[in-house]
Structures are given as structure tokens and as C-alpha cells.
Amino acid sequence: MESFKDKLKSRKFIVAMIAQIVGVLILLFPDKSDQITHTAQSVSALVLMTLTAMGYLKGQSIVDAEQAKNSHKTTPRKSGLLDEWDRDPPG
Fold first, then answer.
1. What whole-number distance in Å separates Cα of residue 30 and Cα of residue 26?
2. Which of 19, 47, 68, 77 is exposed most, by the fewest CB atoms within 10 A?
3. 55-62 long-range contacts, CB within 8 A, separation 24+
4. 74/53 Cα distance (integer angstroms)
5. How is the chain split into domains, by residue range?
6. To 5 degrees, how large is the angle CA 78–CA 80–CA 81?
7. Contact 63/71 with Cβ under 8 angstroms?
8. To 10 degrees, the CA torsion angle through 7, 9, 13, 18?
């Protein structure tokens, strides 16, 4: 079950809240409904773009972290330049 905090982060919930606010503002200020609607559309688009980008970045960071954790466990360590320097010189 989702926590209330997770539900607040939902894009659908945020858009629904913006729609409710716009509805109330249009009821209170009917002469400015075009301006309110235009502003609400801009704010909704900005919020959705930002949340989508943040969600993608968070998801990708989780995938990258999991891949790094799994590759470290299964991939043998390759000999690198520093390993070469640690060896005794021939002779």
C-alpha cells in the first residue's frame, strides 16, 4: 500500500490538484478565466516536465547502481596500470 507521501508525488494527483485550483479560481474570477487557464496550462506543463525528468533520473540512477553492484560481484578484477607498477621489476 502506498503511503500518503508517495501519493502526493503522483503526477496524476498533482494535475488533479491544479485542475481543482483552476476551477476555483475561474469561479472566483470569471472575467479572467482565459488568463487563469493559460497560466494553469503553463504551470501544469512545467510541473509535468520537471517531475518526468526527475523520475527518469531517479530510475536510471537506481538501474545504474544495481548494475554497478552486480558487475562488481561477477566480473573479475582486471589488471590495470597501477597493478603493473606494484610488481617487482624483472631481473
1. 5
2. 77
3. none
4. 31
5. 4-71
6. 170
7. no
8. 150
Cell matching residue 74: 561477477
Length of the chain: 91
25-61 confidence digits (pLDDT tens): 888 988 988 898 888 888 888 888 888 888 889 889 9
Q: Does the model's pTM come out above 0.85?
A: no
Q: How far is CA 69 from CA 8, 77, 79, in A?
A: 31, 14, 19
pLDDT of 70 strictly over 70? yes
Residue showing cell 624483472: 90
